[in-house]
Amino acid sequence: MRFVSAIALSIAVTCVAAAPFEFPTADGFPAPNTAQLAEIETEAQGTLPDGPLPTSLKSAGVTTLQLLALNEIFEVAYFTELLANVTNNVTGYDSASIAPLDRSYVIDAITAVVAQEKLHALGVNGVLMSANQTAIQPCEYQFPVSTFLEAVTLAQTFTDIVLGTLPEAQAAFAADGGDETPLVPLFGSVLAQEGEQTGFYRMVQKKTPSAAPFLTVGSPSFAFTALQMFIVPGSCPQPLSNVNLTTFGPLTVVTTPEPMNMTLEFAVPGTVAPSTNSIVYLSGANLPVTVPIGTVTSIAGMSHFNASFPFQSGFACGLTIAALVNGTGQTYATSDAVAAATLYGPGLIEVG
User: Fold this and answer.
1) Which DSSP state fits 151?
2) Which residue, 57, 88, 184, 309, shows the most beta carbons closer than 10 Å to its own?
3) Phi and psi dihedrals of 49, rounded to 5?
4) Contact status, residue 80 vs residue 258, Cβ threshold 8 Å
């Protein structure tokens, strides 16, 4: 795994690197045999669904499943490494760093999460292969954390992204209909499982387990771009260009956000102007909020600018997504409409 500085990420957290591991894992993932799968299911405290799988998928369904598989395999890598760090008492992950949580409890909890994410990934790839599509294979990853608390904080953020992406996946499957219709409730169960996870990650940080009554909905291209922050460029066996989604330029959140009205500083590796660009926020299940940008300066080849963060005007606690869009004063009805206008993003803001 390689070092990634905070400025290279679109997440408002401080970042350094963790220790490496490689696929396949000891239990054969991503291609376990029958006995190894049984072992994974025991650790996951449940099995893969045993219903019939789709034999045909429309193009939107294929793209959605490719994104979900990429994400699930990344999560297997992330939590496998986290589990190894805790199990081996790596500095920053030892009992003192985990306190007041019991170390054996944390090991049991992460062991279950690793196995559950393996079943998620195997399930998604199983759907793809059942419909004569190519299964997604692991890439190499870079994890910008060095302590247990940093790891859990980042896990909350990318799980929040998943929680905002799965409803979009369900909508895509429902719109496609046919063989994809049974995937709607199936991924509803995955969504609920991910919600249970993020409640644990929030509890570890002494936050209320549930962030808000309605969580932030994203867009597949936002999730796809965010995921690539953790993928070593050029390391995927299948080119990421095979996935029919947009990769945006990075939008760095420079200011540490707080749950209050304030001004945030952002940075992008390109030219911006108040006359042609705006920041749009996605928060909760509310309509997107567009705000103007200002005070543009150039620092070390990056364009820095400010934008108001009107948190107290109805934003939800938890994840807020920021995007730098083309145009000013525009209103957007959906997160997908925001994504269609986005130049840089997502900026991932966690407050409360």
Assistant:
1) H
2) 309
3) -60, 145
4) no
Rounded distance, CA 300 to CA 92, Å? 32
- What are the pLDDT digits (tens) for 119-157? 999 999 999 999 999 999 999 999 999 999 999 999 999
pLDDT at 12: 38
Strand partners of residue 350: 319
Distance CA 67, CA 303 (A): 30
Q: How far apart are CA 201 and CA 89, in angstroms?
A: 20
pTM: 0.93
Torsion sign across C-alpha atoms 116, 121, 124, 130: negative
**pLDDT value of residue 17:** 38
| H helical segments located in the chain | 34-44, 59-87, 95-98, 103-130, 148-176, 183-204, 220-227, 335-341
Tokens 């690197």 label which residue? 17
Q: Are the CB atoms for 21 and 77 separated by under 8 Å? A: yes
Nearest to 244 by CA among 59, 73, 58, 74: 59
Cβ proximity of 218 and 336 under 8 Å: no
The model's pLDDT over 178-227, given as tens digits with 9 standing for 90+, comes to 999 999 999 999 999 999 999 999 999 999 999 999 999 999 999 999 99
Say which DSSP state 121 is in: H
- What confidence tier does 22 reach under pLDDT thresholds 50, 70, 90? confident
Give dist(CA 212, CA 284) in Å, integer: 8
